[in-house]
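Run log, item B.
One chain of 459 residues. Sequence copied directly from the ordering sheet:
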Amino acid sequence: MNERKQAIFETLPVKQAVLLQAMPGVASQMVTLVYNLADTYFVGLLNDPNQTAAITVAFPSFLMLTAISNLFGVGGASAIARSLGRKDDQGARHISAISMWFGLLAACLFSGLFYLLMDPVLHLCGATGDTYALASGYAFWVVALGGPFVVMNTLFANLVRAEGGAAHASLGVSLGGVLNILLDPLFILPQFLGMGAVGAGMATALSNVAATLYFTGYLAVKRRSTVLTPSPASLRYAPVYLKTILSIGLPSALQYALTVVAVSAQSKFVSKYTTQAVAALGIIKKLDMLPLYFSTGVSNGILPLLAYNYSSGNRERRAAVFRFGCCLTVGFSLTCVVVYEIFAVQLSSLLIKDPVTIAYSAAFLRRMVTCMPLMALCYPMIIQFQAMGEVKASLACSILRKGILDIPLLFVMDSLFPLYGCMWVQPIVDAISLVVAAAFYRGALRREAARPLSSSPGL
């Protein structure tokens, strides 16, 4: 690691270090959101609820790609940062190669399996006779064909960020986002190729290919100054490092995987009402991702700082990084809640012009975002657990937030308040999750305080 990158982790003022790491991380997440918003926006211009609903139905499968990426990307990034904190550059090199190759293998396996099971999966996610053909066309390009590139794009960004290259991580992801915005109208709109939702899938796939090529070029150019390497020779160390990568990345991956289950279940509940309601759910799922992705971006950005300083024993700096990161996430989410509550109708109308869909969307949005600030505090806590190697706490909070409570609450709330009760599930889950995360966090701090400063936590 060069002196400039080392300064970010060790000596730069905390607020400056956090901003240098977190803001590119936020930019990466915003670009990921743009991928989905751009598809929804340009498909919405067709003013066809079936087209918008098709993207909504396919979205859970796209989230599974993020789960795979996080398994090896977040896990690898934390392990790399902790190795660098112990001045173990060679270990960081082995971890990076193992993360890359196993991430690629998992992505290819998932994409192949999805292609074979596409029909039952999409129907389970709420596809109907009106939306299945469109949803399968979109999912073929984004998941079955483009899935490995989606995974590697995000995985590379996490690994590059782990050694202090947050700006390059953001640039690579942003390249794909800009290209997606440029290609979407060309592939979707009737005055050009007119392929609708299927064209949106093609544009997204090509954009991820471009971003992955950027990161591949980055590794080639920086090969003498970076610990990141795709060297297959490092795979012989997989028995040493793979367990650590998987144990750290599992909570993030599982949270996204369980999000797929929760989103699919919610779509299935809503699909028994109207197609406009399903389209509205897809719209607000994109809008409410703005504070979610901001919190995720900040959390991913500060993960290397937290892991490095935890591994090197600098508790004061680690705590200061965590506090400032929480201030950023909570402040932004509070702003989003105010804007969403006031301008729900106007924001929904940006993505579709159908008045029935807009009415559903505004009503859904105002309910779903009420506890966003609690979520914005919970995410940095989970990342903190991963940085500290508190696997059980991170896993428990991830499963609780997405998995244990969602589906039972959907049955209860939908029976009490048909359709609209489904939108209150996430606020309830966020509130409960924060209480549990806070309890785990206090326990983690007590255990850290009991450990002598001189003892360096290993992998």
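Observations after the first pass:
- The CA atoms of residues 83 and 92 lie 6 Å apart.
- The mean pLDDT is 87.
Flagged for discussion on Thursday.
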